[in-house]
Amino acid sequence: MLSVSEPCLGQDEKNALIEVIDSGWITVGEKVRRFEQAFAAVHGAEDAVAVSSCTAALHLILLGLGLGPGDEVLVPAMTFAATANSVLYVGATPVFVDIESADVPLMSLEHAAAKCTDKTRAVILVHYAGYLADREKWQAFAAERNLMLVEDAAHASGLQEAGTFGAAAAFSFYGNKNMTTAEGGAVIARDPALLECVRQARGHGLTSATFQRHGSSMPGYDVTMLGYNYRIDELRAAIGLVQLKKLLEWNERRRQLTALYRTLLSERAQHVRVPFTAPRTSACHIMPIVLPRESNRAEVIAAMRASGVQTTIHYPPTHIFSYYKNRFPGVHLPETEDFAQRELTLPLHPKMEEGHVDLAVSALVDAL
């Protein structure tokens, strides 16, 4: 079976884990700090904070920005549920915004403007599939309305532009991402005070971490804020350091495979839409396509699987899930809903060869 995604793990990662185990220190320590500094450097930032997940990263960013009850945050529905969940974690209200179109399934500036109220305080931009939103346009939008910009950059690790839009950016190292630590995430913020707030909040709000106290003659600490257990450990950080060295090469391979997909689909399946036809900076995290309206997606998925090609869907829109539908009834996002009903994600990962792309496209054409 040709998988939709597959982590690239090997002897280098095994050696890194052995080194940590042999050291005798497995919780937050020197490896975590080295990983944070290396991740920041790849993105042209001064520093970063590693946490247990991208969801934790989003939560701590919103917490550090002071968002809470009575505040509204604009979010796309075309994203994983964690984006909206993080808004609820701080007591604020997510306001769902439509995408531009099936060709540009990123949050619509026009619809975002229509959704703004006197309670709107922030916008979470999602770089869907690894394709960056329009930075200058969103910065102007936010400045005009005195809003804070936050990036959900779960799909965009390795892009220097990610993390430069506004207040902060959250990244993901989940097993299907461009680089992985199994579970994990990171925060990049230009304001050192915000970053330090995130760093302290990830460890229960303690004023010093266990590793710091281990090497000190004064083992005491204080708790100066309500914190959380959002720490990442040395084992994951060790894997992250190895993965980070290969990230840019892997991203380039993803771009090459994506370009081949576009060529073959334009030749063999002109009735299939490939989003982002105009050039746009991307980490090419996933390979989304939009099926013709007359096609039966469930049958296409089954037929492709029978041909040895796995597919999936990115994403069922958040606002149609039972919890959100019951909590925020009456939300209708026509562009998002149309895209979500026809989107199909094809296999894309650095282990693939050109022949795998040909196999996936042939299976799709046969299924259609």
Summarize the structure in short.
By secondary structure, this protein is α/β, with parallel strands linked by helices. The chain has helices at 11-23, 30-42, 54-64, 82-89, 109-115, 135-145, 192-201, 210-214, 234-268, 297-306, 322-327, 334-342, 354-367; strands spanning 49-51, 72-76, 93-97, 120-126, 148-152, 168-172, 185-189, 287-290, 343-346.
Could you please describe the fold and organization of this structure?
The chain has 2 domains: 11-243, Aspartate Aminotransferase, domain 2, CATH 3.40.640; 247-367, Aspartate Aminotransferase, domain 1 (Alpha-Beta Complex), CATH 3.90.1150.10. Helices cover 41% and strands 12% of the residues. The chain contains 13 helices and 9 strands. Strands 1-7-6-5-4-2-3 form a 7-stranded mixed β-sheet, with helices on both faces. Helix 6 (135-145) links the parallel strand 4 (120-126) and strand 5. Helix 1 (11-23) packs antiparallel against helix 9 (234-268), helix 2 (30-42) runs parallel beside helix 9 and helix 10 (297-306) packs across helix 13 (354-367). The chain is globular and about 70 Å long. The two termini are 19 Å apart.
Instruction: Specify the CATH homologous superfamily of the largest domain.
Output: Type I PLP-dependent aspartate aminotransferase-like (Major domain)
Poorly predicted regions: none
* Secondary structure: helix percent: 40-55%
Strand content range = 5-15%
Classified by CATH, the class of the largest domain is: Alpha Beta
Topology pattern, helix = H, strand = E? HHEHEHEHEHEEEHHHEHHHEH
Quick check: average pLDDT? Answer: 97
CATH topology of the largest domain, what is it called?
Aspartate Aminotransferase, domain 2
- Number of helix segments? 13
Biggest sheet, spatial arrangement of strands: 1-7-6-5-4-2-3
Number of strands: 9
Name the structural class: alpha/beta
What is the global morphology?
globular
How many domains? The number is 2
